[in-house]
């Protein structure tokens, strides 16, 4: 059970959450699907934030958003050493700041931005809470991927913003790039010809994709990409009952 009890490297995804009106329905969908546990915080009058855990280790957050506010689909927060300095660079690199750096209690300083292609992303400067505490297990984030029509420009934006190395995938040099931090791939950027709204999507690790897909469909999800074997594992794409895209994956043998 690999854990992450130390700050995540700059440019890697440190946290993942979603805020929506149908918070309880969202919990009822993802908890049995991914083995998550965690109840809404009764002391949080605004978002009723529910930190989700696997084996007692934090993996994600699900919060409440009032009906008069737009829902926030799964949002990844990239680890940064200095939130203010990183926020200042967003417009310099062609993006937009939609929420300046502020404190999430004593846990972290966070911010929200939009990249040049229009995709929303978050920043996370850890204080007392580093973010994910576990990975490499069913129920954890396996991969994080941007779907956009502005692939190369987006890759250059994130590479410059986080001082990360950008590599074009050998098999798809004109349509897929990866962000590398400390020599390891941390996120992917997938260029498509059309997408209604550019967005980041999470891949959640599961023990058995076929069983998990059946459970997700029974829970109200819709199948977007059927189960398939890939060089990166057995995967499937779905949209949850709120219409938010996500993927399920089993890593390839030996990984």
From TrEMBL:
<protein>
    <submittedName>
        <fullName>VOC family protein</fullName>
    </submittedName>
</protein>
<feature type="domain" description="Glyoxalase-like">
    <location>
        <begin position="148"/>
        <end position="248"/>
    </location>
</feature>
<dbReference type="InterPro" id="IPR029068">
    <property type="entry name" value="Glyas_Bleomycin-R_OHBP_Dase"/>
</dbReference>
<dbReference type="InterPro" id="IPR041581">
    <property type="entry name" value="Glyoxalase_6"/>
</dbReference>
<dbReference type="Pfam" id="PF18029">
    <property type="entry name" value="Glyoxalase_6"/>
</dbReference>
<dbReference type="InterPro" id="IPR052164">
    <property type="entry name" value="Anthracycline_SecMetBiosynth"/>
</dbReference>
């Amino acid at each position: 059970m690999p854990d992450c009890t130390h700050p995540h490297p700059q440019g890697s995804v440190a946290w993942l959450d979603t805020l929506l009106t149908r918070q309880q329905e969202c919990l009822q969908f993802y908890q049995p699907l991914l083995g998550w546990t965690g109840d809404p915080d009764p002391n949080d009058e605004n978002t009723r934030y529910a930190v989700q855990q696997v084996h007692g280790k934090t993996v994600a957050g699900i919060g409440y958003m009032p009906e008069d506010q737009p829902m926030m689909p799964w949002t990844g927060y990239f680890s940064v050493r200095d939130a203010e300095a990183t926020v200042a660079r967003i417009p310099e690199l062609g993006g937009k700041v939609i929420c300046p750096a502020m404190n999430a209690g004593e846990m972290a300083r966070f911010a929200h931005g939009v990249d040049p292609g229009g995709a929303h992303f978050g920043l996370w400067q850890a204080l007392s809470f580093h973010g994910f505490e576990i990975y490499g297990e069913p129920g954890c984030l396996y991969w994080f991927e941007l779907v956009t029509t502005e692939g190369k420009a987006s890759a250059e934006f994130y590479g410059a913003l986080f001082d990360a190395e950008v590599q074009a995938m050998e098999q798809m040099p004109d349509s897929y790039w990866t962000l590398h931090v400390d020599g390891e791939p941390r996120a992917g950027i997938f260029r498509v010809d059309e997408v209604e709204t550019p967005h980041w999507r999470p891949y959640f690790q599961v023990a058995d994709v076929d069983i998990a897909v059946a459970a997700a469909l029974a829970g109200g999800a819709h199948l977007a990409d059927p189960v398939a074997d890939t060089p990166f594992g057995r995967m499937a794409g779905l949209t949850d009952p709120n219409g938010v895209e996500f993927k399920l994956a089993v890593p390839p043998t030996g990984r």
